[in-house]
Amino acid sequence: MIPPRNELHQERLEPARDPWFHDDRFLRLFYENFHVAHPILVPSATYHDRQYPEFLQLVVNFVGSHYVPSSTSQQYRDKVNAELACNPDRSPCMVQAWLIYSIAIYARGEPQEAQDAFSRAVEIALELGMNKVEFAASLNPETSIEAESMRRTWWELYITDVFMAAPFKGSAFQCSTMAPEVALPCEESAYTGTCDIPTPRKMLDFKRRVFASEETVFPSFSYRIEATTILCRALVLNRLRDYHRDHLQAVENALVSWVNHLPSKKLDIVDSYGNIDEMMFQAHMTISYATMILHLPRSDLQSILSQADDQFWPVASRHLASTLNRPIHSIKATEASRRISDAISLCPNVPKHTPFAIPALALCGMIQLATSIKHTEECFDHHYNRVTLILGCLKSTKRIWGLADAAFNSLRTSAGEALSDSMERWCTEPLRKLFPTDSTPSSTERTNQPTRPTSAISDAQDILFPPIVPGFVDPTCYNDAFFTSIPDFDIS
Question: 231 and 106 in one domain?
């Protein structure tokens, strides 16, 4: 007699007797946090029906355990690593397991181990032909959830390849240099909804959108892929020993073009209901990150901070091949960092974003810090508030990911050294700064001033919100509209 399906499933999971393996909290937290940023597995509603193999479920629970403060994730890490290393499986599920595991290990602050795990995922993926256009449809109907999951897995490999290589100044790209054959993922609402997956669109169609007579909107995942491609170009350029200035201008043109060709529906990362488009958040973040990486090494901010050799600080082999002078590069790098801080202020729950946002946040804070040193103290508050915003986000994230702990400590140490004197001067004379004594009217002047009519204070708004003292309003540094075409995020 054949046992019921549930009993077969239980029997298959029996070797993993650890209670944490069966903890539904880990699965739920994985989907509520990590999966939102890296949505390659089937949607949560179909997870149990999919019956993923045990090793992949182990990885899912391992990642979810990081979001439980009391869990001992290091013990789980060793179990998962041992299971993956000795398992001979060469299926797409193993690719997904190694991929998810590598991102988690990267976020834990173990870059070399993460690179090794990622390489295993790429090796199996290329062996299976997951980079080929026909792979997803060869196992399942093209419009099925499983086929969509396969497409997303390849593109997540493509994106992870670039971000994983960013801190390794000499590492080679494994996926991002291949021809983009695989069809593009669909919109998140279609993937998680009850409707059928639409027929996937090709990368060539996405590239041709710039010549369309009418505005064409593609899924958010597509813009994230293109943004990552531009980031890869910036990283490659910084590693070249010699290049023509037109090569630098080409990357700059790509950054500006990406923004100019965004449809109006993709300009914002938060809709009117407060829902965050995580794929567009990552896309915007990636473009700003690429802009910082491109311009910072060529700016006059490079030598300001004493810890400029930090792992999050980019380097370039040559700085002179540019049509711009160093101050303009500084302005563009600072503007890009401002864009990241503005975006994170809209959705500051960093643990729900990709761990790849951590290096971008660290670099954002370092640039704001360097700019605060370079600029006059009139705009000290402006940069100080952005630095403290980033510090706060990293502080909350370091409880989950070790990489954020390293970024937090690096930025905190640099900020403490660089801003100490400015903070002391700012705090010792706050009243004189906000209420200058030489501008206070004398009793005679007050007597001669006209009395405000009673009707003028009848408005409740005047009573509840008195005139704001200008000293409480942070000054801006400059009008940056000339240097960027990216509209401000609507935070009003």
Answer: no
d(CA 134, CA 124): 17
pLDDT tens string 247-286: 899 999 999 999 999 999 999 898 777 889 999 999 999 9
Residue 307: which residues within 8 A CB-CB, separation 6 or more? Answer: 313, 410, 413, 414
Q: Does the pLDDT of residue 83 top 70, yes or no?
A: yes
Give me the sign of the Cα torsion angle 101, 102, 106, 107: negative
Q: CA geometry: angle at 398 spanning 394 and 400, to 5°? A: 130
Residue in the structure block whose two tokens are 């060529």? 298
Could you give the residue ranges of the DSSP H alpha helices within 20-53? 24-29, 35-37, 47-50
DSSP one-letter string for 251-292: HHHHHHHHHHT--GGGS-SB-TTS-B-HHHHHHHHHHHHHHH
Residue numbers of the domain that contains 295:
222-431
CA–CA distance, 50 with 146 (Å, rounded to integer): 9
Contacts of 263 (CB under 8 A, 6+ apart): 215, 216, 217
The number of domains in the chain is 2
Which DSSP letter does residue 235 get?
A: H
Same domain, 174 and 304: no
My answer on whether 245 and 333 are in the same domain is yes
Alpha-carbon separation of residue 164 from 66, 99, 171 (angstroms)? 20, 11, 9
In DSSP notation, 167-223 reads T-TTPPPSSTTS---SPPP--HHHHHSSSPPPPPPPHHHHHGGGG-SS-----HHHH
DSSP designation for 34: I
Q: Which two tokens stand for residue 429?
A: 């004379």
Select from 384, 404, 431 the last residue of a domain. 431
Same domain for 251 and 382? yes
Q: List 429's β-bridge partners, or say none.
A: none
Q: Token pair for residue 388?
A: 């403290």
- Point out the domain boundary residue: 431, 457, 485: 431
Question: What is the per-residue pLDDT across 57-70, written as a single tens digit (0 to 9) for each?
Answer: 999 999 999 998 87
Whether residue 309 is contained in a domain is answered as yes
C-alpha distance from residue 156 to each of 31, 122, 125, 199, 401 (Å): 16, 11, 12, 19, 20
In a domain, 462, yes or no: no
